[in-house]
Every structure is written in C-alpha cells, then in structure tokens.
Amino acid sequence: MHLKVDGRILSKNVPIANNWFRYILGLMGFQKGELLMDFKKEIPIEIHTFFCRPMNLIFINSKGEVVEFIKAKPWKVFPYVKARYVFETTNLKKIVKKGQKITLD
After folding, report:
1. From CA 14, how far away is CA 17, in angstroms rounded?
2. d(CA 24, CA 91)
3. What is the per-residue burial (b if ≥16 Cβ within 10 Å, else e) of 39-58?
4. Domain encompassing residue 41
5. In whole angstroms, what is the distance from residue 26 CA to residue 16 CA?
6. Among residues 77, 20, 79, 15, which one has the least CA distance to residue 52?
7. Model pTM?
8. pLDDT tens readout for residues 45-89
9. Around Cβ 87, how many Cβ atoms within 10 Å?
10. What domain count does the chain have?
11. What CATH number is associated with residue 74?
C-alpha cells in the first residue's frame, strides 16, 4: 500500500494490519517501521506505545482526511479518536496536518 498526501508520496509499500492480533501488536518491539491499520469502518480507537520507540500516529477517517496527528512518546496511552485507519511510523520526519487528504493506492 502506498500513502500520498497532497500528491506527494508519504510512504511506499506499507504493510497493512487487518486483524485484531496485528492491531494489538502494532509496531511494539520494532526499532523502525511503518504500519497501516485498517479497521474496516470508523470506530473509536485507543493507541498505546508500550514497548515502542517514539513514533508518529496519523488517524485517518473513511474519506481519507487526517482527523488527528500525534507525535507519540514511549509508554503512553492516547485517548480514543474516531477513525478508520491509523498509520504508525517511526520516521519522525513524516508530518501531516489535520484536514489534509491522504490517498491510499
């Protein structure tokens, strides 16, 4: 899966998590990486960063709009955000703004 924002590539060949086991693991324990979680519909999502490195969390609704962007530090729990997708990346240079449109190819 490729993610684009404003016509530029945000990330290429991102693995997709589409089951609860993979949602729970996320990037836990990985030094580097990226993961797109697809929850199939918009639901309230709570994310934790236990056993994780610093990462950026991008919450995306069904329309492809960024509804929340969090620069996440380890050992935190982040409150529920209603979204369909969550993009986790340890590349802290990947920054987006609320309201930006992300396309998934």
Report:
1. 10
2. 20
3. beebeebebebeebbebbbb
4. 3-104
5. 10
6. 77
7. 0.88
8. 998 888 888 999 999 999 999 999 999 999 999 989 999 999 999
9. 26
10. 1
11. 2.60.120.1140
